[in-house]
Amino acid sequence: MINRCKWAENPGLDQDYHDNEWAKPINDDTKLFEMLILELNQAGLSWHTILKKRENFKNAFDNWDYNKISNYDEQKELVLMQNDGIIRNKLKIKAAITNAKAFIRLQKEYESFSNFIWSFTNNKTIINSIETDKDMIAYSELSSEISQILKKKGFAFLGKTTVYSFLQAIGIINDHLNSCHFK
């Protein structure tokens, strides 16, 4: 039997995500954008809910093409608001569009969003020592700092907790339990 983090013990979407994606370094800008938008949509909801809707999000948001998303207009926002396959929250939909524009600006400034986000740790993963779920934190100084910078750069709906989850998702932070096979 493989030891896993407690939240991923049951087979299915959560376990597949845990085993194959969570805390694994991502450098591809399209994948980084996907995770950024999925994480902002997760705010106030369970990650399991987002995983169940992930394919719907991908289809609704043009396969995470941030160039297309940056040009969405009010008509497209209305279409998205009527799509029951995604989270139909107007603020989150608007944030996805706003963030696509800011994402493109950061790409130009840093040559890629990956260069920007990984620069905070000199391209290294922070591996936290997590004995039990009680040792998990919701945010850190790093996620607070990045959240503030993203806001100054024009991003929306990305507070310190959402950014922390994003950093976990893309492998900048590894919070697998010490006993987890995937640490």
Automatic annotation (TrEMBL):
GO terms for molecular function: DNA-3-methyladenine glycosylase activity; metal ion binding. One of its GO terms (biological process) is base-excision repair. Keywords: Glycosidase, Hydrolase, Metal-binding, Zinc. Zn(2+) binds at residues 5, 18, 176, 180. It comes from the Bacteria. The keyword Ligase does not apply. This is DNA-3-methyladenine glycosidase I. It comes from Spiroplasma diminutum CUAS-1.
